[in-house]
Design goal:
The chain is mainly alpha-helical. It has 14 helices and no strands.
Amino acid sequence: MPKQSTYSFHFIALLVVLLLCFIINICLGSVNISFFKTFKALFETATEDASYYIIWEYRLPKAMTTIMVGGGLSLSGLLMQTLFRNPLAGPYVLGISSGASLGAALLIMGTSLFSGAFTLSTFNDITLAIASSLGSFLVLSLVLVVAAKVKDTMALLIIGLMFGSITAAIVSVLSYFSKAEKLQQYIFWSFGSLGNLSWVQLLIVAICTIVGVFLSIISIKPLNAFLLGENYAKSLGIGLQKSRYLIIVATGLLAGSITAFAGPIAFIGLAVPHITKQLFHTTDHKVQIPAVLCCGAILMLICDTIAQLPGSVSVLPINAITSIFGAPVVIWLLLRKRKMIF
């Protein structure tokens, strides 16, 4: 196992890479802005320069959203993989993302069933985020109720997957009866988007992310114990039910708020925990939690920069880029190491 000084070097390197990716993400886009102008715009007062407006009104909130989305989904994926001791578990295994999708589908496509009761003008980013949040909260509440009655963690995993299947089935029925334009609007939402958040919405996501990270930090001891099984955790005097609640609530806050405001972002939550375990060679959550936050933010910034197609007015769906770019990275790491650390 690497020494603590090696971990310190790793984290310094990750922070430097994160800063570089953050600056590059702000510089590149349909209009490329030089490093000098970017630094100047970040540290000066408001000016009439177009670069200042582009950076502060669009690119800076988008880059900050990208960091929180990448870090939050990666952390929630780590929590689920540890709780269920399953390397294929991700932030959405409890049906939280499906709940957000159901909320969005009910708002966008459900109105097709009520002839003219609503119009497309009813929808905007705020109402869509509220509907998605309510859907996530509903499924999270059901999962917490079930968690109070089910003692077997694997049974909870299966029930969470069933919640996801039920909500996906309802969305399929709504899609079948929906009008073409509303179905298209829902599909665009499902692609995921990082650039539509206002500063107020960004603050809401930031608060949920901070609370989720805090709950994860205070759960470090139970998380490390869960890696060796629930019986071992119980022998250490850890309250299984309370710890399970904290981990589920942390995951719900992270994945639910991110999905509500940015849409369902694929791959990141599943892959980044494996990437960090290959880089740090440890399963200790004191190291893994900050590591997945940094690695998730870096990978998301890289994917978003690619999706922006620098120099072009077109923007690719972020979901497509996360999978196309990220999956080969994980495959390469696992082939190189030839052993999954878990």
